[in-house]
């Protein structure tokens, strides 16, 4: 689906979650289960966690996907099994007024919005 949709986030798990949320009309899927061919990548695992899916069953371990060319450097970085290094990507928290504005948006929204 990634190549078909020209979308690097179009992993099967994320696509299934999007479709389930749309069909059910909600973002909380605590009465749902997910079955995946392989251990989810960090992005997919994050989506599974945020959607509150109650059960995840997968077949192959991540190493099987890595063996056929999937890049799992983020999972390795999270696990602490390798040195995270991605060329041309700088990650930095904004400071000063920009950070204060972002923090205020979340604080102001907190009283009005509860996801679950």
UniProtKB/TrEMBL annotation:
<keyword id="KW-0862">Zinc</keyword>
<dbReference type="GO" id="GO:0047974">
    <property type="term" value="F:guanosine deaminase activity"/>
</dbReference>
<dbReference type="InterPro" id="IPR016193">
    <property type="entry name" value="Cytidine_deaminase-like"/>
</dbReference>
<protein>
    <recommendedName>
        <fullName>CMP/dCMP-type deaminase domain-containing protein</fullName>
    </recommendedName>
</protein>
<dbReference type="Pfam" id="PF14437">
    <property type="entry name" value="MafB19-deam"/>
</dbReference>
<dbReference type="InterPro" id="IPR058535">
    <property type="entry name" value="MafB19-deam"/>
</dbReference>
<dbReference type="InterPro" id="IPR016192">
    <property type="entry name" value="APOBEC/CMP_deaminase_Zn-bd"/>
</dbReference>
<dbReference type="InterPro" id="IPR002125">
    <property type="entry name" value="CMP_dCMP_dom"/>
</dbReference>
<feature type="domain" description="CMP/dCMP-type deaminase">
    <location>
        <begin position="1"/>
        <end position="73"/>
    </location>
</feature>
<dbReference type="GO" id="GO:0006152">
    <property type="term" value="P:purine nucleoside catabolic process"/>
</dbReference>
<keyword id="KW-0479">Metal-binding</keyword>
<dbReference type="GO" id="GO:0008270">
    <property type="term" value="F:zinc ion binding"/>
</dbReference>
